[in-house]
Structures are given as C-alpha cells and as structure tokens.
Design goal:
77 residues; 3 helices; 0% strand
Length: 77
C-alpha cells in the first residue's frame, strides 16, 4: 500500500531496540510510530540548540533593541 511518508531504515543495537519496544508498548503505539515521535522530539531539541547558539552569538555583539522598538518597526512594514 503506497504511503506519503518517507521510509527510513535505521539499525539499532539491542539496548535501543528494547527501550524503543518498551516505550511503544507503554504508550500503546507501534514501534515505528514511537520511533518517528522520538525522532521529531530529537530534531526539536537539535533546533533549540541551534537557536541557543545563535542567541549567544548575538548576545556577544551587544546589539539589543527594546521589545517596543522591535514591534514598532515590525508593524510599520
């Protein structure tokens, strides 16, 4: 049966496979669904790390504007 979702082959060691199976059973979902959910969560964490690094770089430059000034400029566009 065709699907619109991409299929990804992942090789997991025994410990990871067992943990994934237990988490899927606990949440009453298929292992593939649990794996996809955990991948989404990992990507969100990765994205947060990128934004944190960007914010730290900007903080070092010391260029700040007030919240009010930002919104005045943003709404003026």
């Amino acid at each position: 049966m065709p699907t619109i979702k991409a299929r990804i082959n992942v090789t997991a060691d025994g410990v990871v496979e067992e943990a994934l199976a237990r988490a899927a059973k606990r949440d009453h979902v298929p292992v593939a669904t649990k794996a996809a959910e955990l991948l989404r969560l990992a990507l969100e964490i990765e994205e947060d790390e990128v934004w944190t690094e960007l914010a730290a770089t900007r903080e070092k430059n010391g260029r700040f504007i007030s919240h009010r000034t930002f919104w005045k400029k943003a709404l003026a566009r």
